[in-house]
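In response to the reviewer comment on reproducibility (Comment 2.3), we provide here a single inverse folding case reported in full, input and output, so that an independent group could reproduce the run without further information from us. The structure tokens appear first.
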């Protein structure tokens, strides 16, 4: 069983309504754009047995976790994180990607060209300003994701692409603040924490790899590049350290699993909430 306080913390995340934009909602219901927004939200009431979240940390290098990651029904990856050439450590299966709006809008990430953005489900997010009305955000997002998002949906990429309602991101931030003693900077949670909050609704359990740094911890930012930047692991703009403390509090795996193997396990809402 799970401790009462842990249960309460886990279930507090459940009450956040993580909404994706649909064509039923103003200003996306406007005739000129509505065809680009889906009628229904992400994953509906779908349930999955097991889900893996692959944080992009440098400590995945040399982990040999690939097979274990691929054994999950759903595998979530972030942004432009590759699998090709890294299969042994991170696996080769991708069913779901969460992308921030920089990855969708900046040509260097090749959102419209690369095959890593096809045959999967994609959730894109962009931060609005705190309490900003949706139509102001739609006119002036942080990075303008919409032209490429529209173009991506026009092609036959066998991909379901959703855009997060940015108000949900702030709801998630508020929930994180509730369980954090110090004042958080008013910056949204990372893609990693968003992914966790989304998948807990749908998975019996979620295994999250190298989000809590294992004994392989390194200054290297990502497993797929050489950049030295400890802030990627511990946070600078996103409230990463708080997110990770929150996630670690919900972990039911052993110390050996977390710090030697390299993942935390969190039971889905259906198990306790
Ligand atoms: O680095 P990023 O994140 O793409 O990583 C995805 C998620 O993995 C977890 N992570 C990553 C590295 C690390 N050493 N430890 C980790 O735990 C985090 O949970 C992270 O969310 C993002 O969240 O979208 C982010 O995106 C990058 C960047 O925009 C994209 O990679 C595209 O290049 C941001 N970096 C910059 O903008 C410079 C990063 O702050 C957040």
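Designed residues, in position order:
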């Amino acid at each position: 069983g799970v401790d009462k306080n842990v249960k309460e913390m886990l279930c507090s995340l459940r009450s956040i309504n993580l909404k994706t934009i649909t064509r039923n909602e103003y200003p996306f219901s406007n005739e000129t754009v509505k065809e680009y927004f889906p009628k229904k939200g992400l994953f509906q009431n779908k349930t999955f047995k097991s889900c893996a979240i692959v944080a992009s940390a440098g400590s995945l290098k040399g982990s040999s976790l690939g097979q274990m990651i691929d054994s999950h029904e759903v595998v979530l990856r972030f942004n432009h994180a590759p699998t090709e050439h890294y299969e042994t450590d991170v696996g080769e299966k991708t069913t779901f990607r969460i992308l921030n709006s920089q990855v969708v809008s900046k040509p260097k990430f090749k959102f419209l060209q690369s095959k890593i953005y096809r045959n999967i489900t994609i959730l894109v997010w962009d931060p609005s300003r705190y309490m900003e009305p949706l139509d102001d955000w739609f006119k002036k997002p942080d990075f303008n994701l919409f032209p490429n998002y529209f173009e991506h949906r026009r092609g036959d990429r066998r991909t379901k692409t959703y855009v997060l309602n940015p108000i949900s991101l702030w709801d998630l931030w508020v929930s994180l603040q509730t369980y954090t003693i110090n004042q958080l900077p008013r910056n949204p949670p990372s893609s990693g924490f968003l992914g966790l909050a989304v998948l807990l609704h749908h998975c019996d359990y979620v295994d999250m790899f190298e989000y809590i740094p294992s004994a392989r911890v390194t200054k290297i930012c990502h497993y797929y590049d050489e950049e030295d930047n400890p802030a990627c692991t511990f946070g600078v703009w996103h409230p990463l350290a708080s997110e990770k403390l929150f996630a670690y509090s919900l972990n039911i795996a052993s110390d050996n699993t977390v710090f030697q193997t390299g993942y935390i396990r969190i039971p889905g809402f259906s198990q306790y909430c």
